[in-house]
Amino acid sequence: MRWVLGGVGLAAIGYAVAGAATDTGIDPVGHLTFLATVLIGHDLILMPAAIGVGALVARYAPAWARGPAHAALYASAVLTFVALPFVIGAGRRPDDPSALPLHYGRGLLLVLAAVWVVAAVAAAHGRRRARRPATTGSRGVG
């Protein structure tokens, strides 16, 4: 299955490269600049930061808080990645105020707050479960 998926992926890449090479309406320098920027941003900035934050949480957070903290960090990163173009107004035109009419920054903050409240509740539940004394016997009789 891995070979099949790899072959399909390579075929799709070949199709895209062939299409880009034969299309007269593209700017190859612009495309390569964009690809280099994404690659550098991902491999030299985003991934080291994600790995570093994850390692800090794994090392310093108590065991009952690690899972909720990692989940909330992951959800926060994904939500921010998806919402960032709207927050910065990419594509907004001054002559069309209805193109991006909402307060996307405030919406992102509200959703992130909800994610972290759920994570805090989950961590508090985990802490409460970790502090309970163990019962003896299968039904607590003993």
Can you describe what's shown?
The chain is mostly helical. It has helices spanning 2-22, 28-60, 63-88, 104-131. The radius of gyration is 23 Å and the shape is extended. The mean pLDDT is 88.
Write the layout of secondary structure elements.
Blueprint: H1 2-22, H2 28-60, H3 63-88, H4 104-131
Helix pairs in contact: 3-4
Range of helix content = over 70%
Q: Total number of helical segments?
A: 4
Coarse morphology: extended
State the order of secondary-structure elements, H for helix, E for strand: HHHH
Poorly predicted residue ranges: none
N- to C-terminal separation? 53 Å
Total of domains? 2
Helix- and strand-based class?
Answer: mainly alpha
Cα-atom radius of gyration: 23 Å
Query: What profile does the largest beta sheet have?
Result: none
Record field, number of beta strands: 0
- Overall pLDDT: 88
Strand content: under 5%
Key features of this structure:
142 residues; mainly alpha; 4 helices; extended
